[in-house]
Structure to design on (710 residues):
């Protein structure tokens, strides 16, 4: 008798559970919408300027730290990264023009083309970490489930890079705060599905954008942990975000060169 | 003939002086020959190491650029290119293709940046014959059995294996059988990894082994997501390595005729072009690049140039000492033999024969002493080479491109050293000989009184 009762309960759970799960699972369109919201909250229609502090810890090596100034003009995909501290690095910089990333070193006075996946200042971060968020455009999402991240309720999404998307990590897992819509945690994986790095976004700030007529959100702190080379980590602190229009001549090689003269 | 006999008698008569000068010439020539043998050994190491680790005698490499800034070192239609090489070079003895990759080998305790050579071990056994398995003491700290040798290059037949050099194993703190992760980016720039087991650890071959490893071709194909018939380079070995440059021009002309796009010949290794030259060019698509082993190892030829410069400088310094010694000794000899010279002049010996007499004396001294020095230097080099002396200091291994002392005395070097030092000896004697030739019989008699 006991056995048959258990069987009935099990059969009921088996029959009902998938449909209950289906009710909780957002549709593909809803997931894309979720990513679009994440992207939109960070995007700004005008210009962007910020100061960032980068710190890199690498096993067997001395810690390194830099201060950089970021300039972005999303309307025509331009990006400038200027190293300001320490003195030995000051004047170095990256400039992206027409999908080409260039690096300038004032000590040799030369420009070099660099790959889009260049490790900025040798840290675990790359150009995409500082660029505008394009998750909805670059990835196809899949819902994993609702999960607790500490005290916070999150949506756990698994993303796969779309064919032809120019991304460093083809597989990504995201934990989005249900309450705020901000990303709290991100896992970047290799094509082989091996976990490469985990990124935490413990603090988000917002700035009102005149051009967008809405708030623009940005992570005030990013902590990146290398999952293959255990012990390597990067800390990025972003501050002084300014969305006022930038000088028209800023995204030029001449401007970056002038900073080290 | 009489002049020659007088010169020889003079040498034998002044035995102390002859032995003193001869010993100096002997030692300098021996040193010179041994330095040349060391340079020859490094050159030999360079040829053997570079044509095993990174290059054939000739290479058909290539670059593919999807955008002007993203360049990859790959060639398309590899089997067709092998066929072209076969057609253009009838003296090719082996034509294989290798995949080229660059990434990290990561263990639990360390990371090294390395070149990943994707090879088919069955095709390359001969080319890799130089690689010797390293005993545990060369890469493990406190190895329980220091002389233990483990693993095999043949394990590369199995997927998911890797062969690394002892210096890399030391930094990674891994042994044969340990697991490592290989990390790189696909051609589209996406991160990718592969797991591998260390199949063998081989002895270092100097600087070249600092950034090389061997994996099965399939590993590189999967890491870079390559399509079939795509490879890194076609490597060609010729019957005669000295024909490399000529063969390169023939192959370039052949590929040109067949319509393959090629980049201009630039005598630098492929990785320097990949990092510096090619990304700064505005073209996109695929271009081939035919190079010789010397191009691919050009960054190492500086070591040879450096060694030659050091040898030349040291020998020059010693030659100056010899010139001063010979000039001084000959000047004293001329003064001591003024009476003899006067007598010879009085009985009718002409000035030029007096000059020749002293010059022949110095030349004979040079031929015997430098000749003996050259022969002993060559024999000593051969003995040291046969002894296979192990080099324990890393910096020396890096410069000499081997973990053993390797000397190659070449006949041409020995002859050159002997001739050079003989000429130095003769030239050093020229001024005192000229002074001797200028002595008049009257002056000689006056000095005798």
């Amino acid at each position: 008798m006991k056995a048959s009762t258990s069987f009935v309960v099990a059969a009921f759970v088996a029959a009902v559970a998938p449909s209950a799960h289906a009710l909780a699972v957002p549709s593909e369109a809803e997931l894309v919408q979720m990513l679009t919201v994440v992207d939109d909250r960070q995007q700004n229609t005008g210009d962007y300027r910020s100061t960032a502090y980068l710190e890199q810890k690498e096993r067997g090596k001395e810690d390194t730290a830099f201060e950089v100034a970021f300039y972005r003009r999303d309307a025509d995909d331009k990006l400038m990264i200027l190293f300001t501290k320490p003195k030995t690095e000051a004047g170095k910089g990256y400039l992206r023009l027409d999908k080409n990333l260039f690096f300038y070193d004032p000590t040799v006075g030369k420009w070099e083309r660099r790959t889009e996946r260049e490790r900025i200042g040798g840290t675990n971060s790359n150009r995409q970490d500082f660029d505008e968020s394009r998750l909805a455009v670059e990835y196809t999402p899949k819902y994993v489930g609702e999960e607790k991240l500490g005290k916070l309720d999150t949506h756990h999404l698994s993303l796969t890079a779309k064919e032809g998307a120019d991304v460093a990590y083809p597989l990504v897992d995201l934990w989005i705060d249900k309450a705020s819509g901000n990303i709290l945690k991100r896992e970047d994986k290799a094509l082989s599905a091996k976990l490469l790095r985990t990124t935490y976004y413990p603090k988000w700030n917002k700035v009102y954008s005149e051009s967008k007529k809405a708030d623009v959100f940005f992570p005030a702190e990013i902590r990146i942990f290398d999952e293959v080379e255990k012990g390597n980590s990067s800390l990025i602190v972003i501050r002084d975000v300014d969305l006022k229009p930038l000088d028209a001549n800023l995204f030029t090689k001449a401007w970056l060169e002038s900073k080290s003269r | 003939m009489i002049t020659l006999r007088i010169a020889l008698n003079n040498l034998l008569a002044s035995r102390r002086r002859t032995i003193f000068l001869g010993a100096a010439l002997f030692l300098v020539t021996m040193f010179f020959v041994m330095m040349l043998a060391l340079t020859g050994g490094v050159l030999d190491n360079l040829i053997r190491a570079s044509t095993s680790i990174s290059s054939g005698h000739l290479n058909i490499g290539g670059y593919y650029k999807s955008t002007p800034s993203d360049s990859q070192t790959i060639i398309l239609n590899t089997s067709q290119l092998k066929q072209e090489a076969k057609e253009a070079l009838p003296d090719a003895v082996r034509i294989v293709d290798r995949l080229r990759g660059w990434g990290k080998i990561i263990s639990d305790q360390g990371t090294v940046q390395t070149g990943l050579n994707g090879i088919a071990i069955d095709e390359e056994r001969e080319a890799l014959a130089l690689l010797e398995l390293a005993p545990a003491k060369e890469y493990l700290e406190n190895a329980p059995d220091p002389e233990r040798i483990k693993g095999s290059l043949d394990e590369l037949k199995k997927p998911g294996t890797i062969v690394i050099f002892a210096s890399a194993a030391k930094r990674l703190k891994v042994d044969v059988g340990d697991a490592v992760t290989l990390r790189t980016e696909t051609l589209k720039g996406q991160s990718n990894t592969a797991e591998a087991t260390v199949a063998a650890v081989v002895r270092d071959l100097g600087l070249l082994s600092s950034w090389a490893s061997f994996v099965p071709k399939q590993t590189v194909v999967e890491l870079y997501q390559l399509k079939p018939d795509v490879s890194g380079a076609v490597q060609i070995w010729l019957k005669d390595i000295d024909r490399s440059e000529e063969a390169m021009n023939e192959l370039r002309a052949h590929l040109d005729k067949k319509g393959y796009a090629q980049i201009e010949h630039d005598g630098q290794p492929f990785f320097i072009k990949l990092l510096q030259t090619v990304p700064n060019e505005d073209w996109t698509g695929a271009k081939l690049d035919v190079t010789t082993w010397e191009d691919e190892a050009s960054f190492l030829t500086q070591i040879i140039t450096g060694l030659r410069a050091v040898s030349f400088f040291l020998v020059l310094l010693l030659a100056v000492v010899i010139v001063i010694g010979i000039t001084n000794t000959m000047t004293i000899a001329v003064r001591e033999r003024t009476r003899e010279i006067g007598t010879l002049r009085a009985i009718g010996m002409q000035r030029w024969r007096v000059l020749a007499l002293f010059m022949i004396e110095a030349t004979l001294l040079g031929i015997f002493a430098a000749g003996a020095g050259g022969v002993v230097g060559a024999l000593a080099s051969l003995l040291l080479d046969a002894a296979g002396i192990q080099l324990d200091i890393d910096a020396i291994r890096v410069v000499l491109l081997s973990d053993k002392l390797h000397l190659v005395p070449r006949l041409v070097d020995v002859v050159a050293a002997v001739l050079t030092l003989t000429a130095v000896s003769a030239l050093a004697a020229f001024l005192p000989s000229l002074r001797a030739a200028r002595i008049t019989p009257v002056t000689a008699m006056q000095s005798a009184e």
In short: Chain B has two domains: 2-48+299-448, 57-295. The longest strand of chain B covers residues 92-106. The CA atoms of residues 83 and 223 of chain B lie 27 Å apart. Chain B touches chain A at residues 67-70, 104, 106, 108, 110-111, 181, 183, 185-186, 188-194, 225, 276, 279-280 (CB under 8 Å).
